[in-house]
Design brief:
This protein has 325 residues and is an alpha+beta fold. It is 55% helix and 20% strand.
């Protein structure tokens, strides 16, 4: 047994004996005070005796702690150094835990969003299995122009009737007498009226809010308003590509054409066009082939050029121009 352990055991035995000696003394003192009917602060003798007993117990604890501090260096180390250090470590750990809690919250939100998407997908699948889906959620059903110079209410009524007729032919073609199957919220119309009244030219897109089955009696729609602006001008070069002689040949001509058209489509989308496809004038592949047959330059420039002014909902019509240098 080490010296430290021996000292610890001696100290424990001493504290037990000391407590055993002082405890009867405190009890005896309390009893005598009770019999003597001694009073402190005008308390009843019985309560005074209890207070004296409590003070004696506190005295025992104080002596015990004092002796431990006096005799045991390890106790002093733990009390005055380790405990504050542990408290500081605990505070730092709590601070470090905050980012983890935030990350956990973000992860839980992502999981909840994925669950909602999954439930939506399950609902869509059920609808597909349940019947013949003729209109999909988010599908654009009708597009029309609106000008602030026109009577907005009258124009919206005409647009609604035209869109309603178009949708009826898809959903319930056999019920020609049925009308007003399109349903949109009144506040959507109020919002459109408020925006268009400020001036400008606009495009209204009527989109389906849900999947629609053939034979359904109602179609819920969401109108969306877009500014009707010029997307491309006639003669404007939308996309341009410079190629080396080795890059442009018959083998990769199709790939180059697809890349040019994809870049053109991306550009007009960024500008706000809602046209789904780009219409090309002439055979781009034949044009490249014929050009290469009569030109043998080291570099070529391919330009995709707009053939007309096109606004937000207008088709984009382009041609290919090739030059060498």
């Amino acid at each position: 047994m080490s010296v430290r352990n021996s000292v610890a055991w001696i100290l424990i035995v001493f504290l037990i004996l000391l407590g055993g000696l002082i405890a009867p003394f405190g009890d005896l003192l309390g009893t005598k005070i009770g019999k003597a009917r001694f009073s402190i602060l005008k308390l009843r003798p019985k309560k005074t005796a209890t207070i004296v007993t409590i003070i004696t117990g506190g005295f025992i604890s104080s002596i015990s702690i004092g002796l431990l501090l006096l005799v045991s260096e390890e106790f002093r180390q733990r009390l005055f150094v380790d405990i504050p250090f542990l408290q500081k470590t605990l505070d730092e750990s709590k601070k470090a835990l905050i980012p983890l809690q935030e990350e956990r919250k973000k992860l839980e939100d992502k999981i909840n969003n994925k669950e909602r998407e999954l439930n939506k997908l399950k609902s869509d699948v059920k609808e597909f299995r349940r019947g013949n889906v003729v209109i999909k959620r988010g599908q654009t059903l009708f597009i029309a122009e609106i000008s602030s110079n026109q009577n907005i209410k009258s124009n919206l009524a005409k647009i609604y009737n035209s869109a309603d007729l178009y949708v009826r032919k898809i959903v319930i073609p056999s019920k020609k007498e049925t009308k007003n199957i399109l349903l949109w919220r009144p506040n959507d119309i109020s919002e459109i009226e408020g925006i268009t009244s400020k001036g400008g030219n606009w495009i209204i897109l009527i989109k389906s809010a849900t999947n629609v089955l053939k034979g359904d009696n109602f179609v819920f729609v969401n109108p969306e308003l877009l500014q009707n602006k010029i997307i491309v001008r006639s003669g404007e070069v939308i996309t341009s590509e410079i190629l080396e002689k080795n890059d442009l040949d018959y083998k990769n001509a199709n790939s180059i054409i697809k890349t040019l058209l994809r870049k053109t489509r991306d550009k007009i989308k960024l500008r706000g066009s809602i046209a789904n496809e780009i219409t090309t004038k002439g055979d781009f592949f034949k044009k490249i082939r014929d050009f290469l047959d009569i030109n043998q330059s080291n570099k070529y420039q391919l330009d995709v050029v707009s053939l007309k002014d096109s606004k937000t909902a207008d088709p984009i019509i382009v041609e290919l121009k090739i030059t060498n240098f």
